[in-house]
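Page 42, continued from yesterday. The earlier attempt failed because a stray header line got pasted into the input along with the sequence. Redoing it now with the clean sequence only.
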Amino acid sequence: VYGSRMVDLSRLHVYAWDARPTPAFPAYTDVWGDGDNWRLGHWISGRLSGAGLQELVRDLLNQYDFTAIDVRDLSGVVPGFVIDRVMSAREALKPLELAYFFDAIESGGLIKFRHRGHQSQAITLDTSELVEAAPSRPLVSLTRGQETELPSTVKVAYLDGSGDYAQRIAEASRSTVASNRVASAALPLVLDAEHASQISDTWLHETWSSRDRAQFALPPSTIALESGDVVTLTTNGRELPYRVIAIGDSGTRDIEARLFERRVYRATPQTPRLTSIVPPPPPVGPPLAILLDIPPLRDDESSQSGYVAAAQLPWPGSIAVWQSPEQSGFRLKCLLTTPATTGIVTSSVGTAHPWRLDHGSELIVALDRGALSSTTRTQLLAGSNAAAIEIAPNIYEILQFESADLIAPQSYRLTTLLRGQRGTEGARAAIPLGARFVLLDSAVRPVPLTTDELNLKFHWKIGAANRDIGDTTYFDQTHTFRGVGLAPLSPVHIRATRASNGDLSVTWIRRTRSGGDSWEATEVPLGEESERYAIDIRAGAVTKRTLTSLTPSAIYTVADQITDFGSVQPTVTVAIAQVSPTVGRGALTTATV
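This time it went through. Structure tokens are written below.
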């Protein structure tokens, strides 16, 4: 005769682990036809990462040095739980109490945790067993909460475990009530959509079913009655269950209870469904980030600002640019929201005169990404189709192009060029093979800098704004911005006349970085706090003398010529620069006069 249990628990085994990776299985139902069976099936794949509610509450309170606890009444599995800041044990337990509908009470020297739906009936009472707490009070006081004070909608925010832990909202509502109130809670819990929906439904139904309240008093002999117990109270011929929520001991036992409906806590089975998972992001490396020390591209931009451009595949949405004098304490300088159009020069181009249309040269550019297009002559002269070409390390010439012809995949022929734009004629030289190319469109953003940050080496970290600054995909480089936008432009139209006594009078016309394109102005803005020039008198590469002037003219006297050269010179080589009180000398213009 077999005298044991029908199922021998010593031979109980877990079944079954599936080799298909979770959460791809079961989410990719277009790959695996049995994915829909996972919710109610026998698989343990994807189900072992959670913690039992009993174990979680016990471990949580042990960390707060609470060991006298009783969690035997708790059941359920918590897929994930977050404590994101320093908090008390009560605060840590609050979201769990709301999601799993249990209460903590003190009983017999223990903190007991009791699920509201598991409470059994403690006692049955009628009015003859109640006591009079005060002559002016009735034996039983029954009240009902007003509909307008109860929520018509509850919203539960949670972390979607199958959706890359994004925050989702589960909502439950009653449409036929005279209330427009909304109750909401943000739970730091990882849940699936079904569990979150059950929480919102139960919370809403509990709020409405417990709106009926009873207050009465019991004799001291009912000392065994505790908070959370369910009592059946007979009033007006009706027997209704109430859950005790508060007890006051003042000679009598003053009871406050709410109407209790056990069925509220019995989760209604819902149609299982698979939440589509977010595919993991493809592996990416650091972005292509370019720090450009170039003059301001528009008159309304700060002259001391630098510029930055970046590109990355796939584009992360926005790229953050951080700066620090050391490898910590980084400050956000700007955000890039558009990938830059970058590439390299695949055909060298010789030097050319600045500011004149070059119809003979062709610049071939192979792009990493993006596209180029032609423009009209009017738009060209208005500043469109500008690009920065790295002539030498960290030295850029700005040029413009009128025509862009696609000659191969991602390869363009640029013609009708304007060289040395925005004051970069000093960087104008032969464009070498392999020079970096950056289209200066709206994707290139200014980096705000103060004058105190110029000519100092800073650490720069550039990477996806949705990743931590310490992520390995961040571009990390040191760079020094020189503030080339503050340097005065080189003078033009150098002329010289010789006086009857042999003195040489040299004149020139100054330029300005901003506000100098109007034909109506009689004089372009100075652009500096004061006007000052340095004039070098040269003999080959040797500077014989430096003159200074506060006006766009200077006198090289006969006496100085004899001192410098031993005789009066028929021609003299001069190099003239406007001087800024902030950055010193600007660009030089050299001429033999």
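Notes: Residues 288-482 form a domain with the Thrombin, subunit H fold (CATH 2.40.10.170).
Reminder to self: strip header lines before submitting.
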